[in-house]
Amino acid sequence: MEEKRNDSTSLRPEGERLLDAELVSIDLYDLNEQIQRETAWLEGDRTAITVFKTDGMRIVLIALHAGAEMKPHTAPGVISVQVLKGKINFATDQHNEDLEPGQMITLHKRISHRVKAYEDSSFLLTMATPGDTDH
């Protein structure tokens, strides 16, 4: 299997990181600290970093400031959201769940949902990406 890496950029200068390989070890707490030192977090209401990306799956670490909201949207595949820090509200048209560290929620594809942070929060978004072979 060929390893895939993400190169550093001016917005994310802390070096390249491994995105796909036979085995990928990810330190979520270290990455969370890293993204909260970046301009997007310091000057905006959110930031995110892709921590794993392969055919059919993507995992993204997302951080939201208190009060930040991800407006209603859908995903092309099944998702899971696992809270690492803080407290968020995850809502669909039919369900409304408050989530704290250690709690997780799953959602089937193409269901409109939104996320709001009650306090500075971080969560892991895992997405099935059907048909995604360009990673």
Automatic annotation (TrEMBL):
Gene3D superfamilies cross-referenced by the UniProt entry: Jelly Rolls
UniProt source species: Arcticibacter pallidicorallinus
InterPro entries in alphabetical order: RmlC-like_jellyroll, RmlC_Cupin_sf
CDD domains in UniProt: cupin_HP0902-like (cd02230)
Protein's name in the database: Quercetin dioxygenase-like cupin family protein
